[in-house]
Write a structure and sequence with these properties.
This is Transcriptional regulator. Helix content is 49%, strand content 6%.
């Protein structure tokens, strides 16, 4: 469950916003990307709450990026959209907080933890500019 529709729509929205010279409102984005306006509005609120976009009110209002496109990492966008860290597997990042209370029996935790670290590292190095 690494990338859900929230993440996908957040990425597509930010790419679209980056291509405009003025604030882009949710109406325009939802039509352009063929995404439900109400669902997109919630995603944009999450991105604004995380300071990835700035919301401008009024007739000419909408959203603009709060950082240059080459400084917005995919990891921070996904975390903002999902409102939690992306997880490759439902596995804890520490043996001491294993959700199944079977950490001492788990032989695959080191592998899963290493994979999660590599995915996070990859997403932290990848920027919106890299995928736009």
């Amino acid at each position: 469950m690494l990338l859900t529709k929230k993440s996908e729509y957040a990425l597509l929205s930010l790419i679209s916003i980056s291509k405009h010279n003025e604030p882009v409102n949710v109406d325009i984005l939802s039509k352009e990307l063929e995404i439900s306006k109400s669902f997109l509005a919630k995603i944009m609120q999450s991105l604004a709450k995380a300071d990835l976009v700035i919301s401008h009110r009024g007739v000419n209002g909408g959203f603009v990026l709060n950082k240059p496109i080459d400084e917005l990492t995919i990891l921070e966008i996904v975390v903002a959209a999902e409102e939690k860290n992306p997880m490759v597997f439902e596995c804890s990042d520490a043996i001491s907080s294993c959700p199944n209370n079977k950490a001492k029996l788990c032989t695959i935790w080191p592998l899963l933890n290493n994979l999660q670290f590599k995915v996070n590292d990859f997403l932290a190095k990848l920027t919106l500019k890299d995928i736009a």
